[in-house]
Design brief:
Elements lengths: L2 H7 L2 H24 L11 E6 L4 E3 L2 E3 L1 H10 L5 E4 L2 H10 L4 E5 L3 H6 L12 E4 L5 H70 L1 H36 L5 H27 L5 H37 L8 H8 L15 H24 L12 H30 L7 H26 L1 H17 L11 H6 L4 H14 L7 H28 L1 H11 L4
Parallel strand pairs: 1-4, 1-5
Antiparallel strand pairs: 2-3, 5-6
Membrane topology: Multi-pass membrane protein
Main location: membrane
Pfam families: ABC2_membrane_3 (PF12698)
Length: 550
């Protein structure tokens, strides 16, 4: 039953070689996984050249310099190794592979940004240069850095314009409030004028009974009206300075009307001064003039009330609006993204480990078939049963040793966080035994051709197991092979037990699938061994294909 073990123990070199072969998966995993364990934690070592040629500009009377602002932001940013240099030096750095991207800010960046509300507005052209021939993934990271700069500049420009617009809106609100106060004050003045002019009319109508006695009263009343008109004229001029352009025509017309009223009232005052006893006709004319002036004042009051209402409607639109720099920040960047993950990932290597482990174990199985003479002559065994059991026990032993070493390296060397360690080890053990069983069948049946087929099988599984990119990004052939080949199940199952989730290719399905592969392979191996004992020709062909000399 232990013929193969006895054979190994008699050959120390073979024993040492097999033990070395058992470490291949651990060595392969250590080197490969160690080189990519956490690359995103070292992105600050990737150099990005930034060429700032921006010359600045002026916006709303204030100097802006988008390029300088960006440089200051990046100096405090440690996501990449930002280097600020000239265009010529940046081109040399990119060509030599010293940097992974060059981001160039044009000299007209600020000038273009200052004209975004003009009729000839243009985009700001940010140039991002990469060198994918030197390192493709590095160039992708470099391009992402350039796009991050683009987003930062876009946010800065949006914030700049938002703050300017909010400031203008705040000024408009303040001016409208001042205009409203001025119009309200004018309305009060007009009402006082109407009341004074009413007293004037009453006085003029009473002049028939005592012109001389009423002359002083008329003069005082008319003087009050004149003073009020002058005050209202001054208020109108102030209002014109504060009113929006669309109200200039109305206020100018009111100002002309007030001027005419002043002229008319001064004429009335002259008439009062010239009045004497018995000037009844003049008193009647004055009374008629005052009544006309009263009508004009009433129309002016109505117009002022209408204008005041319009200004109030405009101010009502500002109710509830908070116009501050904080609001400008919210408007410029209104979206807050909350990212949640159903699994907790510590680093890139943790996600890549299942694929590397599956590949390294399969490679270890191929190496075992190359080193150990799977097609040993049947003369070394009593019968087919002993031959099958002996080799099967050897396969199991190699699988236990190989996966044990690998698990120890992952757990204690890389400190790989595994949610279900026992299941993880069981998956690796079943996967190794399944791969070794299939390869043993192929080599027992077809010798070196079987080893070649095993390599082809590995290549197909490398491309269809979704170990790196999502399977949806692969071709139709690989998507068809994905749910069929066992590495897809092994990789997915290892991910499940590491991160504690359930995928389409579940862990239980993997256990069943790998167990079936192992069982079927061992049965086929038994049949092959039986045929070798029954038919010498079959034994000779398989040994010839292996070209093994003992």
């Amino acid at each position: 039953m232990l013929d193969d073990f006895k054979h190994i123990l008699k050959k120390p070199i073979l024993l040492i070689s097999l033990l070395a072969i058992a470490t291949i998966p651990a060595i392969y995993t250590t080197i490969f996984l160690g080189s990519m364990w956490d690359p995103y934690d070292s992105m600050d070592q990737l150099s990005i050249d930034v060429v700032n040629e921006d010359t600045g500009a002026e916006l709303e009377g204030e100097e802006i310099a988008l390029g300088e602002d960006l440089v200051r932001e990046l100096e405090d940013n440690d996501e990449f190794n930002w280097r600020f240099t000239s265009a010529d030096e940046a081109a040399r750095d990119l060509g030599r592979g010293e940097v992974y991207a060059v981001v160039k800010i044009p000299e007209n960046a600020s000038e273009t940004a200052s004209g975004l509300l003009e009729s000839n507005a243009q985009n700001i052209d940010i140039e991002i240069q990469t060198n994918p021939g030197y390192n493709f993934l590095g160039s992708v990271m470099g391009a992402n850095a350039g796009n991050a700069i683009k987003d930062e500049l876009s946010l800065s420009i949006t914030k700049l314009y938002t703050e300017t617009l909010i400031g203008n809106l705040d000024d408009i609100r303040a001016n409208n409030e001042e205009l409203h106060d001025a119009l309200t004050e004018m309305q009060s003045g007009v009402q006082e004028l109407i009341e004074g002019n009413g007293e004037l009319v009453t006085g003029l109508e009473q002049m028939d009974t005592g012109m001389n006695q009423s002359a002083d009263e008329l003069s005082r009343g008319n003087a009050q009206v004149t003073d009020g008109l002058y005050e209202m004229d001054e208020n109108l001029r102030n209002a014109q300075n504060q009113a929006p352009p669309q109200m200039d025509g109305q206020l100018a017309a009111f100002s002309r009307g007030v001027g005419e009223l002043i002229t008319a009232n001064e004429a009335v005052q002259d008439g009062i001064d010239q009045m004497g006893p018995g000037v009844t006709d003049a008193a009647g004319e004055l009374a008629e003039g005052s009544r006309q002036m009263n009508d004009g004042l009433t129309e002016l009051e109505d117009a002022l009330a209408e204008m005041t209402a319009e200004v109030e409607d405009g101010l009502a639109e500002f109710d509830g609006l908070e116009l501050s720099d904080d609001n400008a920040d919210f408007i410029a960047d209104p979206i807050a993204v909350t990212e949640t993950e159903v699994t907790e990932i510590e680093n890139y290597g943790q996600t890549f480990a299942p694929f590397i482990v599956a590949v390294s174990l399969f490679l270890g199985c191929i190496a075992f078939s190359v080193l150990y003479p799977v097609n040993r002559s049947k003369t070394n065994y009593r019968n087919a049963w002993v031959m099958t059991v002996s080799k099967t026990l050897l396969l199991i032993t190699h699988s236990l040793i190989s996966t044990g070493i690998l698990f120890a390296v992952l757990k204690f060397g890389f400190d790989l966080a595994i949610a279900e360690p026992a299941q993880f080890y069981l998956i690796t053990l079943l996967w190794t035994l399944a791969a070794l069983s299939v390869i043993t069948v192929l080599v027992s049946l077809a010798g070196n051709v079987g080893k070649f087929i095993a390599i082809i099988l590995l290549i197909l599984q490398l491309s269809s197991s979704a170990g790196t990119f999502p399977i949806q990004t692969a071709g139709n052939l690989y998507q068809s092979l994905h749910p069929v080949l066992p590495m897809s199940y092994a990789v997915t199952a290892m991910r499940e037990v590491i991160f504690d989730f359930e995928a389409v290719l579940s862990t239980q399905s993997t256990f069943v699938y790998l167990a079936v592969i192992i069982t079927v392979s061992i049965l086929l191996f038994a049949v092959i061994n039986l045929l070798k004992f029954r038919f010498q020709k079959f034994e000779d062909i398989s040994r010839e294909m292996s070209r093994v000399e003992y």
